[in-house]
Amino acid sequence: MPAQILDLFAGAGGLSLGFELFQPKGQRVFEVYRAVDIDKYACQTLRTRYGNERVIEGDIRDEKVQKKIISECKGKVSIIMGGIPCQSFSMIGPRSGYGKKMEKFKDDQRDQLYLEFKKIVDALNPNIIIIENVKGILSKKDIHGRKIIDNIIKDFEKAYNFDNRNNNTKYMLLNAANYGVPQRRERVILIGINKQWKNIKVPYPEPTHAEENNSYLPYVTVFDAIGDLPSVSPKVTKTNLKPKQIKQITKRNRYLRNGKDKIFYKKEWLQKHLSRIGTSGKEFFEFVRPNGYQFLDHHIARSQQFSDILLFRYLRQGETAKEFAKRKPRLAKKLIKYSMDTFLDKYRKQKWLEPSTTLFAHLEKDGNRFVHPKQSRTITPREAARLQSFPDDYIFEGPISKKFRQIGNAVPPAMSNSIAKAIYSEILCD
Questions:
Q1: pLDDT tens for residues 22-64?
Q2: 356-394 burial, b if ≥16 CB within 10 A, otherwise e?
Q3: Do 239 and 163 have their domain in common?
Q4: Which residues are catalytic?
């Protein structure tokens, strides 16, 4: 029987999905038993994937929700995992410091959510626990000056061993790009093994990809990941346009191909693309394009201001707003509508032949840091999902903004898949 997983703070389910998709010789060795989240759109996504019974919607701090989780999972799950909410740890959120008073974030209640996670772990006593978080957790301190990461390890260490086999740390800092994800994304991973179950050290998932190392596959690039997808164009918003321009734009938008939420995926798209990419890209498509899936979902271009579309056209690959302003100061002053004193990388055109920069939940608001390398627009939800290594048959529910939020917050399934492989090979099969 597959090892049963309880996924807390599941979001769209990327962490547990990577485990489910690890199937040596076609055998399912991990299975999601319950997935829990407070966000209604994430729960809709999880229900679409797993059905109603396996999804619990609610606040983990709510005593009724905790009781429901414990009653349904007692004696049933052997692995508890979760991406504990990380807004107060993130270096691009409150801690970025732009216009913020930092004192208010020293005593952020979200820093204590791991204690709610621990209550459930204590009640269910699983064999393995897995905690995922952003790199910022390594430097964030509590009001007493203690590092949050040390507090977490100390609180769990009485029952769980976190010592790694490969180094002297009790956590791992993994870059998703090293595990076949077309994105540079550093994440902290804690794996704890129940001392009463097995007295062994934690395995380290061996990297499979590297930037410049002949012992590994090359990084999967943005082109590898999304180069097969059909071109789409953004509709133009009416913002800052004159009446005559609005009339012209309305007519243009009517005939524009900005994409649809579901279309048939043409086999020739994949065949042509596979002929243009290397081994890294081909292996990536084995993961994200399941055999027999006939559709392409959520490939819709976001509407943009006309000035932004022009800016996207002028940006060079890899260029940020700050760099563009230095190269074309007059044009930048005309096209960029915000203060250049802060958020100097608010606009960024991604590089076609490199992994993307780190995706994040701000995609819900705009995608200006994720401008398509070849088309004058920001990335679509499906392109974002590809850059996160979600398979094409993974459907995200909710408005387009909520799809982006779920995708940006997720753990890349391909990276999680490598963690699953290490746990299965070196712990479960030990």
A1: 999 999 999 999 999 999 999 999 999 999 999 999 999 999 9
A2: bbbbbbbbbebbbbbbbbebbbbbbbbbbbbbbbbbbeb
A3: no
A4: 86
